[in-house]
Design brief:
271 residues; five-stranded parallel beta sheet; 28% helix; transferase activity; Thiosulfate/3-mercaptopyruvate sulfurtransferase; single chain; 10 helices; repeat; transferase; Rhodanese-like_dom_sf; alpha/beta; Oxidized Rhodanese, domain 1; 2 domains
Length: 271
């Protein structure tokens, strides 16, 4: 379920490139690169990066009922992380070379599987390449967030019981105005609106104002659910609101699972 807590009780999972550089210099962190597919790592990754791929390590093979990138089991995640030499209680920083969504999915999956000290490199590889010289030491994390997931059947059984937020682009949410394009009642809130022009997380005050505009601080007891196409951009959406005290559930099946059944209710944007 969704809860709204005082911001002082929560922390953001994002860290800066400068903080990561200081942690690497002290040898106190493991860095994990997250590829969106099984392709090669970038030419100049963060030094010492362990290479992973979103569909291999943070998802199971897709099927229509579960979506393109269904969640793996926590046991499977703990197994491969042990084989890769990741300390389950150590500091881990995940990053990608794109918009941060793949890294956020990795953060969500690893944290959900029981690794409590995972952070996301804010701005990804581009931020690392452009980092400044200021050394900021890695601070202790608050207790790992209690991440939750929800499946298609639960949402379909009682749509009005949930506050649904669509983290896809506004164009994907709207569709062509004729065919169903999003879950009924879902609010369009693209993951990218939580970022600045350089792909970095907006400052706290700006995100707080955005959350207020979206009604996330309203007196509404219904659980907040984030979805997208396959549970990737939605993971970034969830990460972006952690320090605001908003605790959404991830609908990992997302639109790719929901739309697999033509008989299931769906909505089209007004013409």
């Amino acid at each position: 379920m969704s809860t709204v807590l005082p911001a002082s009780d929560t922390v953001s999972p994002f860290i800066s490139a400068e903080t990561l550089a200081a942690a690497l210099a002290s040898g106190s962190v493991t860095v994990v690169y997250v590829a969106p597919d099984a392709g090669p790592a970038p030419a100049e990754p963060v030094p010492g990066s362990i290479e992973t791929a979103l569909p291999t390590h943070y998802a199971e093979p897709g099927d229509p009922a579960r979506g393109r990138l269904p969640l793996p089991t926590p046991e499977a995640v703990r197994r491969w992380t042990a084989e890769a030499g990741l300390d389950p209680d150590g500091d881990i920083v995940v990053y990608d070379a794109a918009n941060g969504s793949a890294a956020a999915r990795a953060w969500w999956v690893l944290t959900w599987a029981g690794l409590p000290r995972v952070r996301i490199l804010d701005g990804g590889l581009a931020a690392w390449a452009a980092r400044g010289a200021d050394a900021v030491h890695l601070s202790a994390l608050a207790p790992a967030p209690e991440l939750s997931t929800i499946d298609t059947d639960a949402i379909a059984a009682d749509l009005p019981a949930y506050r649904l937020f669509d983290a896809r682009t506004a164009a994907a949410h709207a569709g062509d105005g004729k065919q169903p394009s999003h879950l009924p009642g879902a609010v369009s809130s693209p993951a990218g609106i939580w970022q600045d022009a350089n792909g970095r997380l907006l400052p706290f005050a700006q995100r707080q104002a955005l959350a207020r505009k979206l009604g996330l601080f309203d007196d509404d007891e219904r659980p907040v659910v984030a979805y997208c196409g396959s549970g990737v951009a939605a993971a970034y959406w969830i990460a972006a609101v952690q320090d605001l005290g908003v605790k959404p559930a991830l609908y990992a099946g997302s639109w790719s699972a929901w739309s697999s059944d033509p008989a299931r209710l769906a909505a089209a944007a007004p013409a």
